[in-house]
Amino acid sequence: MSTHRRTVLGAALAAPLLAQFTGTASAAADEKWGTISEGWVEIRWTEQIQAELDRLGAVVEAVAPAELVKDNSGSAVRFPVRSGQGDPSLKSPPKAEGDGVLDGGIAVRTPTGNARVVNLRGVLKDGLASGKCEVNGVDIGHRSVLRCVLSEGLLTTGEVPVGRPLKVRINKVPVHATPEALEVYTATFGTPVFTADTVLAHVTAEGVYTPPKR
User: Fold this and answer.
1) How far is Cα 18 from Cα 131, in angstroms, rounded to an integer?
2) At what angle do helices 3-14 and 179-189 cross, to 10 degrees?
3) Has this prediction a pTM greater than 0.85?
4) Distance between CA atoms of 96 and 92, rounded to whole angstroms?
């Protein structure tokens, strides 16, 4: 497998990990957004994606401090949140936006090559996820690779006075590939077993949200 093919493989498999990042960092954002701390993000891929991994002969491992989780429901990777800021839009989750960085990464082993994906950084705005990561030492950028159906996730929060830090959790957000992502994937690997309507994974995330100072 060529270096380019390994790079694309790593990027394609890493893309869902960017799903919980939101927005774009800027001085203006620092003033209007709150921060996320003590957080983690878990991405659990579906049976269709596991079938595609099996077809490619790919094995996914976690790069510490991320952890690989395997149970009766399938496989997942859980990442600590290194930093994050944004607006979780508690009254209307589909309007959430912000940005963030995950610690750790994933390693993908195939019969003909390996990919190590780290430095996961990304954004989510208007339900579309994009971002950057490092694959085998090469920086890779993604534009509009995932569609996150935030309205179908289960949002829960703690009870604290307005303006105080509160724990926020969103469970099982469905993630789909965008047409742009499907086009790149098809050009690299051939027609996939999934479409834009296929749920690639479910994302669960939790953290302490500290609102911006007013």
Assistant:
1) 7
2) 150
3) no
4) 7
DSSP 175: E
One-letter identity of residue 18? L
> Residue 152 gets which letter from DSSP?
G
Those residues with Cβ within 8 angstroms of residue 28's Cβ, 6 or more apart along the chain or in another chain: none
HEC string of 83-136 equals EEEEECCCCCHHHCEEEEEECCEEEEEECCEEEEEEEEEEEEECCEEEEEEEEC
pLDDT of residue 144: 75
pLDDT at 12: 42
pLDDT in the model for residue 2: 45
**Two tokens at 148?**
């996150």
pLDDT, tens digit (0-9, with 9 covering 90-100), for 89-123: 888 888 888 888 999 999 998 887 888 989 988 78
In this model, does residue 6 exceed pLDDT 50?
A: no
- The token duo for 26 is 């800027």
Burial of 91 (0-12, 13-18, 19+ CB in 10 A): exposed
Largest CA distance in the chain: 56
pLDDT tens profile 203-212: 999 999 999 8
Residue type, 131: G
Start-to-end C-alpha separation, the chain: 54
